[in-house]
Specification:
This protein has 3 helices and 17 strands. By secondary structure, it is α+β, with helices and mostly antiparallel strands.
């Protein structure tokens, strides 16, 4: 009987390993990838261990996102990620856990072409590149719970239209340290060498709240209220980004 019990116990482990192998080798097309919203995923190939999908943001292609499962950990699946596209490149690691996920990106680069595409509905066309360093994003499902790291825009000419007129001021570099505000939302202050130009907070439902300071209007050579300091808030906006 002891031998029979040991054999049954070993058989259960073999069956569990077999089922796990089938799951990890399932086609990537079976993944419940998001189809609606601003971020679109399509063209899944490969399987859960290693595969590729095509990403697009608001109809603009971002490129091919590839993943490869590295050594699994307890209750976590670590994935090595790589995104190669005409306007965005990054490499990083993701940790998938029951009910939560973490994304770590040591470096990323977003070209001016992508910025112009995304800002074209607002008739804003910036030059320069956005660079990211040690970016970390955590979430639960489709809700962001934490962001960290540094973003920097290299600066340069920005062409925009306002009131039927075209302006093209040259901006200095801008930088932001990502974190959380007092309400716990992902947030940051974007600053020029002279001081902060705007605050933003990304809510869990995909809306971003912007608080624009007079200094940004000064840099943009745009009319601004008189009698206010450069750090004064002059405009508040909200926009759905995800």
């Amino acid at each position: 009987m002891e031998r029979l019990g040991a054999a049954l116990q070993g058989g259960r482990w073999i069956a569990a390993a077999f089922v796990l192998t089938l799951v990890l080798r399932a086609p990537a097309a079976w993944l419940p990838l998001p189809q609606g919203g601003a971020l679109a995923v399509s063209g899944a190939t490969g399987h859960l261990l290693a595969g590729t999908v095509q990403l697009a943001y608001r109809g603009q292609p971002l490129g091919a996102l590839s993943w490869h499962l590295t050594r699994p950990e307890t209750l976590a699946l670590p994935l090595r990620l790589s995104l190669e596209g005409p306007t965005l490149t990054l490499q990083g690691m993701a940790q998938l856990r029951p009910g939560s996920w973490t994304l770590s990106i040591p470096q990323l680069a977003l070209s001016s072409t992508a910025l112009k595409q995304w800002l074209s509905p607002y008739e804003i066309a910036p030059e320069g590149e956005i660079q990211g360093r040690d970016v970390r994003v955590e979430g639960a499902g489709q809700t962001l719970t934490m962001v960290g790291g540094t973003l920097r825009w290299t600066g340069g000419p920005v062409r925009y239209r306002l009131g039927g007129a075209t302006f093209e001021p040259t901006f200095p570099p801008l930088s932001a340290e990502l974190g959380r505000n007092a309400q716990g939302a992902a947030a940051a202050t974007v600053a020029s060498p002279a001081g902060p130009v705007l605050d933003f907070a990304l809510r869990g439902n995909g809306w971003v709240d912007l608080s624009i300071k007079k200094r940004l209007l000064t840099l943009a050579r745009s009319p601004a209220p008189e009698g206010l300091g450069e750090d004064a808030q002059v405009l508040a906006l909200s926009e759905k980004v995800f």
